[in-house]
Specification:
With 235 residues, this protein is of the alpha+beta class. It has a five-stranded mixed β-sheet with strand order 2-1-5-3-4, with helices on both faces. The chain folds into two domains: 75 residues, Roll (Ubiquitin-like (UB roll)), CATH 3.10.20; 151 residues, Alpha-Beta Plaits, CATH 3.30.70.20. Helix content is 26%, strand content 16%. The structure holds FE2/S2 (inorganic) cluster. The site of FE2/S2 (inorganic) cluster has 12 residues, from loops.
Length: 235
C-alpha cells in the first residue's frame, strides 16, 4: 500500500503517493512542466532533460519525470535558471541534426517546434552539426527521417512496451547514436514489425511519419498510445 505524502510544488502543498514522480504529481494537479522524452503510459527514461526542476536542498537540477516524490519535497518548476537551461537544451537538439521545419511533414504539429516557440528559441547560439543522415523509406506505409530524430526513444518504448514487438533500439554512443530497426535492418525488412504505427504516433517530431503526407499535414495522436497502456493497467 503506497504511503500518502505531501509535497510543495511552486509553493502549493499537494497530496501525493510514494511511487509517483514529480512530473506525475505536477500533471495530476494542472501544473505544467515541459517534457519531450516522457510519455504517459511508457517507462520514463529521463533522457531529454527538458523537465528539469529545482528541488529545495539539492544543489543540482533534477528531472521531474524520473524523480520520485517524498514527504516534504519542495519543488520549483519555473525560474530564470530553468528557463535558460531548457532553452539551451532545445537549441542543442536543433543544432545536432537537420531540423528544417519549413519542409517538414510535422511542422505545426511538432512537439520540439512548439516547445522552441514556447521558450523563445528564435535562433540557435551553437554551431549546427549538419550531419549527413539517411531517410529510411523501405516500409510500405511509414518513413523514418533520421535528420529529425531527437533520440527520445518514445518509439522504442511504445513498440516494446505496448505492442510487444521491440523492433526499435538506439545503437551507438553520443553523436553516433542512431535509431535502428531490428539489428540495423531497413524498416521495410524488419520481420518483427507489425505495421501497427504506434511508434509513428509516439514520435514527437517529423522523424517518423506516414507516407503520403505533404508539409504540415502529418498530425499524431500521442494519446492513443497512453490510452492503450492505461486500459491494460485497468484490466
Ligand atoms: Fe524528463 Fe525528458 S521528459 S528528461
Amino acid at each position: 500500500m503506497p504511503d500518502k505524502v505531501k509535497v510543495r510544488i511552486d509553493g502549493e502543498v499537494i497530496p501525493a503517493t510514494t511511487g509517483q514522480t514529480i512530473l506525475e504529481v505536477a500533471r495530476a494537479n494542472d501544473k505544467y512542466i515541459p517534457a519531450l522524452c516522457y510519455m504517459e503510459g511508457l517507462t520514463a527514461v529521463g533522457s531529454c532533460r527538458l523537465c528539469m526542476v529545482e528541488v529545495q536542498g539539492v544543489a543540482r537540477l533534477l528531472p521531474a519525470c524520473t524523480t520520485p516524490v517524498q514527504e516534504g519535497l519542495s519543488v520549483s518548476t519555473t525560474s530564470p535558471q530553468l528557463q535558460s537551461y531548457r532553452k539551451m537544451a532545445l537549441e542543442l537538439l536543433f543544432a545536432e541534426r537537420n531540423h528544417i521545419c519549413a519542409v517538414c511533414v510535422s511542422s505545426g504539429h511538432c512537439e520540439l517546434q512548439s516547445l522552441a516557440q514556447e521558450h523563445g528559441v528564435t535562433y540557435v547560439r551553437y554551431p549546427y552539426n549538419f550531419p549527413r543522415l539517411t531517410v529510411d523509406t523501405t516500409h510500405p506505409r511509414f518513413v523514418l527521417d533520421h535528420n529529425r530524430c531527437i533520440l527520445c526513444s518514445r518509439c522504442v518504448r511504445a513498440c516494446a512496451e505496448i505492442e510487444g514487438a521491440h523492433v526499435w533500439d538506439i545503437s551507438g554512443r553520443g553523436i553516433q547514436s542512431r535509431l535502428v530497426s531490428e539489428l540495423s535492418r531497413p524498416w521495410g525488412e524488419a520481420t518483427t514489425c507489425t505495421s501497427c504505427g504506434k511508434c509513428v504516433q509516439a514520435c514527437p517530431t517529423g522523424a517518423m511519419a506516414e507516407k503520403g503526407w505533404a508539409v504540415e499535414e502529418m498530425t499524431k495522436d500521442t494519446g492513443k498510445v497512453s490510452h492503450l497502456s492505461s486500459m491494460r493497467e485497468t484490466r
